[in-house]
Specification:
It comes from Congregibacter litoralis KT71. InterPro entries: AAA+_ATPase, ABC_transporter-like_ATP-bd, ABC_transporter-like_CS, P-loop_NTPase. Keywords: ATP-binding, Nucleotide-binding, Transport. Residues 6-242 form the ABC transporter domain. The protein has 258 residues and is of the alpha/beta class. The chain has a domain at 31-43 and 83-245: P-loop containing nucleotide triphosphate hydrolases (Rossmann fold). Helices cover 39% and strands 25% of the residues. It has helices spanning 44-51, 74-81, 99-110, 115-128, 144-155, 174-191, 202-208, 228-234, 238-252; strands at residues 4-15, 18-29, 33-38, 59-64, 67-68, 84-87, 162-166, 194-198, 211-216, 221-226. β7 (162-166), α6 and β8 (194-198) form a beta-alpha-beta unit. The longest helix has 18 residues, at 174-191. The chain is globular. The chain starts with a strand and ends in a 6-residue tail after the last helix. Bound molecules: adenosine-5'-triphosphate. The site of adenosine-5'-triphosphate has 11 residues, from β2 and α1.
Length: 258
C-alpha cells in the first residue's frame, strides 16, 4: 500500500511581497519519481527550497510522513534531513577532495561507522553509480556526467528515503543524460527511495517520472498533477499539453536549430 512521504497543504510561496505560487497542494507517494514542472520562473526551484527547509512558507504546511516539517524545531528537522539525499545542479562536489573523500564526507559527519566500514561503503556507492576504480580521482579529472554520478554516490551514502535532484542532467549531452536517468531509475528500484526532481529535460520526464505537478507562472497556481504521459494527452489545460508535447518534439529529432 502506498503512503505519502511528503504532503504539501495550502502552500503559498513568496519573496517578501512578491507572490510566487499560492495554495499548492500535493502528495509525493513512497516509490514515486516525482517531477516539479512548469515554465521558466514559475517557482520550481523555490518549491524545492521550501521542501528542503531553505525557505519558509508564507502560508501552509509541508509534512514528511506524519511529521509537520514546517512547525518542527531544529533538532527534529535535522533528524528528517538525515533521511534525505540531495544533489544540486552544480554537483556540489568539493574540488580539492578525491571522489572517495567526497562520498565519505556525509558518512564521517552523520554516521558512527568505523574508518574501514566507511571505505567499504564508499567503494560500494561509487560502484553503484558506475565509478568503480575512480576513488582517487579529483572532480576536475573526470567528465561532467561522471561528476553528476559521483554527486549521486554521495547523496546515497547514508541510504536516504528521499532523493532530491535539482536539474540532474543540466549541461549533459543526451547520452550522459539518458545514462543518468537510467541510474536514477535503477537506484530507486534497488534502494526503494522516493525521488523528487526539478527538471527541464522533458524526455527525462517521460523516461522516468510516474508522477508530476505543473506550476503555472501566470496564474501562480499548480494547475495540474498526475502521470506526465497521461497529462500530455489528457490535461484539460492547453498550456500543460503544449509544454509536455514539446518533449516529443525534442525527443524525436535533433533538427531544431533554436
Ligand atoms: N531570492 C529571491 N528573491 C526574490 N525573487 C526571487 C528569488 N529567487 C527567485 N526569485 C524569483 O522567483 C520566481 C521563481 O523563481 P524560481 O527560480 O523558483 O523559478 P524556476 O521555475 O525554478 O525557474 P527556472 O525554470 O527558470 O529555473 C522568479 O521570478 C525569480 O525571479
Amino acid at each position: 500500500m502506498s503512503e505519502a512521504v511528503i504532503s504539501i497543504r495550502d502552500l503559498t510561496m513568496a519573496y517578501g511581497s512578491r507572490l510566487i505560487q499560492q495554495d499548492v497542494n500535493f502528495d509525493v507517494m513512497r516509490g514515486d519519481i516525482f517531477v516539479i514542472m512548469g515554465g521558466s520562473g514559475c517557482g520550481k526551484s523555490t518549491l524545492l527550497k521550501h521542501l528542503l527547509g531553505l525557505i519558509e512558507p508564507a502560508r501552509g504546511t509541508i509534512s514528511y510522513g506524519s511529521q509537520n516539517f514546517t512547525r518542527a524545531g531544529p533538532a527534529e528537522r535535522q533528524a528528517l534531513r538525515q533521511n534525505w539525499g540531495i544533489t544540486y545542479q552544480s554537483g556540489g562536489l568539493i574540488s580539492a577532495m578525491t571522489l572517495a573523500d567526497n562520498v565519505a564526507l556525509p558518512l564521517e559527519q552523520y554516521s558512527n561507522y568505523s574508518a574501514s566500514d566507511i571505505r567499504d561503503i564508499v567503494a560500494l556507492k561509487l560502484a553503484l553509480v558506475g565509478l568503480d576504480g575512480y576513488q582517487d580521482f579529483l572532480p576536475a579529472e573526470i567528465s561532467g556526467g561522471m561528476r553528476k554520478r559521483a554527486a549521486l554516490a554521495r547523496a546515497i551514502a547514508l541510504d536516504p528515503d528521499i532523493l532530491f535532484f535539482d536539474e540532474p542532467s543540466a549541461g549533459l549531452d543526451p547520452i550522459s543524460s539518458r545514462r543518468l536517468d537510467d541510474l536514477i531509475l535503477q537506484l530507486k528500484e534497488s534502494t526503494g527511495a522516493s525521488v523528487v526532481m526539478v527538471t527541464h529535460e522533458l524526455p527525462s520526464i517521460f523516461a522516468i517520472a510516474n508522477n508530476a505537478i505543473y506550476l503555472d507562472a501566470d496564474s501562480k497556481r499548480m494547475i495540474d498533477s498526475g502521470n506526465p504521459a497521461w497529462m500530455r494527452e489528457h490535461s484539460e489545460h492547453a498550456v500543460v499539453r503544449q509544454f509536455l508535447n514539446r518533449a516529443a518534439d525534442h525527443a524525436s529529432g535533433e533538427t531544431s536549430h533554436e
